[in-house]
Amino acid sequence: MILILTHSNDELVNMVMPLFAGRTEVFRFNLDRWREYSWNISPQGYEIENRAGEVCSESGVKSVWVHDMKFVPERVDMPLGGNAETWNREAVLKTCRAICELAAERGKLVFAAQALREAWSPLRQLRAASAWFAIPQTEVLYRCAPSIPKPVLSKSLCSGWAYSPAINKTARIEPDMVNIDDQWYLQQEVEADEQLCVYCIAGKLLAFRCSLKTSNLYSACSLGEADATAVRELVDHVGLEFALIKLLRKKRKSVFLEWSELPGVLCWKTQVAAKSVLQAIADAVLLKN
């Protein structure tokens, strides 16, 4: 049996799950619907039951796949007297982490090298990637004027809820419009013809390109020997087993943007391209099974 820890709107998990049909049993635990389950967890093992009466016991679990453990909606208003839902959510997260740690101890945790650690910040990613790729000039500012030449993009260091939806969006701004009394995450806009997205899945690299001028659909492409070598060395250096690396390319020169350790779904041009990624993920999860 495979135990998947995720949330109910996880599109990538939704697309991968059919590939397990007929090969193994799957038990899915959606954090945002935690009230639909019952569980008993101890140092000796765990048992989880859903509303359908299906039971997941540690003794029958061969692999545990963790992907995007979050709540939907993410935001909970906090009244002055405190909030029981916030407390419950933290307890559920700690419970799921305990399951992950038990799985890792017995060699059952998929993508174990990164599943239990904190994700790298954008600045740390850029510093690491600069050993292999050109990187855009970047600044995080508070009460300091920007020094990045135009054109400049404003980005967000946070993915959670903000008082204004625009805070979380990437947008081009004029440097002289920056209010130094606010916090800013600024990056020089890179001139490029296409964006490359490279899935790194248990040692396998799957590259896709999207023209920034003619289409928003991604098609499979060759990464090229130099970029492939650079990506592999970066992945090995960081210890990434499951990630999506984003590059910008102009005239075959690539600039590193970022990586995500919670890869999502691209707007693929063909189902064949999509299936190659989904199958690689399913195979990596099944390898532990």
**How much strand content do the residues show?**
25-35%
The biggest beta sheet is recorded as: 5 strands, antiparallel
Q: Look at the helices and sheets and give the structural class.
A: alpha+beta
Task: Show unreliable segments.
Answer: none
Rg, alpha carbons: 21 Å
Overall shape: it is globular
Count of extended strands:
15
Compile the SSE list and pairings.
Layout: E1 2-6, H1 11-16, E2 26-30, E3 37-42, E4 45-50, E5 55-57, E6 63-66, H2 84-105, H3 112-115, H4 122-129, E7 138-142, E8 152-155, E9 171-173, E10 183-188, E11 194-201, E12 204-211, E13 219-220, H5 225-238, E14 242-250, E15 253-260, H6 271-287
Parallel strand pairs: 1-2, 1-6
Antiparallel strand pairs: 3-4, 4-5, 7-10, 8-9, 8-10, 11-12, 11-14, 12-13, 14-15
Short description:
With 289 residues, this protein is an alpha+beta fold. Helix content is 25%, strand content 28%. The strands form four sheets. The protein has a five-stranded antiparallel sheet. A four-stranded antiparallel sheet has the order 7-10-8-9, with no helix packed on it.
Care to describe what's here?
There is one protein chain. The chain is 25% helix and 28% strand. It has helices at 11-16, 84-105, 112-115, 122-129, 225-238, 271-287; strands at 2-6, 26-30, 37-42, 45-50, 55-57, 63-66, 138-142, 152-155, 171-173, 183-188, 194-201, 204-211, 219-220, 242-250, 253-260. It is of the alpha+beta class and 289 residues long. A hairpin with a 7-residue loop joins β12 and β13 (219-220). The termini are close together. The model has no long low-confidence stretch (mean pLDDT 88).
